[in-house]
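Exam revision sheet. Question 4 asks you to relate a sequence to its structure. Input first:
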Amino acid sequence: GEDTVILEEIAGYIGLNRFYKYAKMHRGRLDKYMYRDYLGFAKALGLDLKNNRYAFPKNLREEHDKLEAQYEIQSEKIIQDGIKKRGKELSNNKYQDKMFVIMPACSLKALQNESKQQKNCVRTYAEEYAKGKCDIYFMRAIDKPRKSLVTVEVKNNRVVQSRIKCNRNPNEEQLKFLNNWEQKVLKGAA
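Answer key, structure tokens:
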């Protein structure tokens, strides 16, 4: 059952004979779930789990929390760098007419700011966007380029989602602009 699964996961990081030795040192009071998570962070951060110093932390909770914090910082940095790179890659798709302009999200901060202005969850797309699984664009009025207007998600050069404040749908005019952009720019990029 559940116990087998967790042991299999632990075995993915270190040999079970080594795990049993470590568990014995804890007189059977070892939190296997916390240990599994600890090993995951250690591996992601490139620590050598063949080394007992890393494989068998003296204070599991303390080390777990320390590595978790380091891991969060590292993954945030990976996401930030990924978004910058994607913003540059997609910058050729920038488009405008007399009323509107649309451009890719170019930083994590910009995504978080859009999210706050729009009261939507676009920041949860940050990781997907950073990994290239979707494209996120901001559509703005030409005369108010700083004010969030429509948040747009694109997949395979097609608009799959466009939302104004509080996840409502854009108006006719805005949709027409998006349609023109999709036809003239995105289809061309495909």
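Marking note for examiners. Residues 24 and 30 are 9 Å apart (CA to CA).
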